[in-house]
Write a structure and sequence with these properties.
- It contains one helix and nine strands.
- It is mainly beta and 203 residues long.
- The longest helix has 19 residues.
Amino acid sequence: MKTLYLTLLIMLLAGAAYAQTNPSQNFALAKGQNELGIWFGGSFNSPTLIGTARERKLLLLGLRYGRVLGGSENVAVVYVADVLPIATVFQPDFAPRGNAAVYGASVSPIGFRFVFNRRRRFKPFAETTGGFLYSKRPVPLDLPEATRFNFTFDFGGGVQFFTSSRKAITLGYKFHHLSNAYRSRINPGLDSNVFYVGLSLFK
């Protein structure tokens, strides 16, 4: 955890130092602009606001596509979609499987981000996405009554710091939920507090 925070701090400082050498760049988000990004994050606890599963951890690696749809003078509306080749749930073993890590992948094809200060270097944002996750074993309970296919949604916010007109570092938080929506007899659900860092290219 300390290593993650240190990495985030170094990235921000490096970006700030680079930005000082390019004070005249344009950081505005224009309608039709595309974003390609990668992000990495995790949750070290599992609150029970919606779900009931406890003592779980979540590790996510995502690839992001975004497109600026429009907005007002100061607020941009961005469509976002994520493909997560790594979506791993760490859960206590309820059966003799020999490994608490349950590997999976996830897709969130529907999402929107609302970006504030769209013309400035620091851009706070709020966003939400929805999709599904498929895992090698049932989550968040390793029991036959649970499912390997779950639906997901998240919401949160953060800040994008533009080191140049086309490159940005993202620091964010999202409340992430997965459950099977009662497709099975039981629907324990898993809530996660996910902190993440990402890099994006705009064109």
